[in-house]
């Protein structure tokens, strides 16, 4: 795996933008979810498979630092890393980037993180199954700098 973690591209649609013609701030959390979901699907398993185990992973904490706006039709790069894994929680970090068409360099638009708890359908903290932890744990070595 590259030093940058998992990367996924996403094209901004009109529905992502606000009256100022820029991506609405809360949509960056959707972009984080897209990155996280695609990384998990590619490297571990789909969230559907986690749900079939009777677990859900709700967000318990989120943080976004905005650096520059994204606009309609921008091709974004969603960079995702797993940065922490515990028995009943995990934490992901994200960067939302856009390649500058003139320089070819990537511009940081936003960065942040989300923390997720492992809970059962009744909302009770529930340890992640050992076999799932071992599969998810491979993401830590894939994305460490």
Please mark out the parts with pLDDT under 50 across 5 or more consecutive residues, or reply none.
Answer: none
The CATH H-level homologous superfamily: Hotdog Thioesterase
Radius of gyration: 16 Å
What percentage of amino acids are in beta strands?
A: 35-45%
What is the 3D form?
Answer: elongated
Strand line-up in the sheet with most strands: 1-4-5-6-3
Order of H and E elements: EHHEEEEEEH
Count of DSSP E strands?
7
Largest sheet: 5 strands, antiparallel
Number of domains: 1
Annotate the secondary structure layout.
Elements: E1 6-11, H1 27-43, H2 47-52, E2 55-56, E3 59-66, E4 75-85, E5 89-99, E6 106-117, E7 119-120, H3 130-143
Antiparallel strand pairs: 1-4, 2-7, 3-6, 4-5, 5-6
Describe the structure.
With 145 residues, the protein is α+β, with helices and mostly antiparallel strands. It has 3 helices and 7 strands; from the N terminus they run E-H-H-E-E-E-E-E-E-H. The strands form 2 sheets. It has a 5-stranded antiparallel beta sheet. The longest helix is centred in the N-terminal third of the chain and has 17 residues, at 27-43.
Salient structural properties:
7 strands; Thiol Ester Dehydrase, Chain A; alpha+beta; two-stranded antiparallel sheet; 5-stranded antiparallel sheet; 3 helices; 145 residues
Give a short overview.
Helices cover 26% and strands 36% of the residues. It has helices at residues 27-43, 47-52, 130-143, and strands spanning 6-11, 55-56, 59-66, 75-85, 89-99, 106-117, 119-120.
């Amino acid at each position: 795996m590259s030093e940058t973690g998992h990367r996924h591209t996403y094209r901004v649609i009109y529905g992502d933008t606000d009256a100022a013609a820029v991506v609405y701030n809360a949509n960056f959390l959707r972009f984080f979810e897209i990155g996280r979901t695609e990384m998990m699907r590619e490297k571990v398993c789909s969230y559907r498979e986690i749900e079939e185990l009777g677990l859900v992973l709700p967000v318990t904490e989120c943080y976004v630092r905005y650096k520059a706006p994204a606009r309609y039709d921008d091709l974004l790069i969603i960079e995702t890393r797993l940065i922490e894994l515990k028995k009943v929680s995990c934490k992901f970090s994200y960067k939302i980037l856009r390649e500058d068409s003139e320089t070819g360099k990537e511009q940081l638009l936003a960065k942040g993180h989300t923390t997720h708890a492992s809970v059962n359908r009744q909302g009770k903290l529930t340890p992640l199954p050992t076999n799932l932890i071992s599969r998810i744990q491979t993401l830590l070595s894939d994305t460490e700098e």
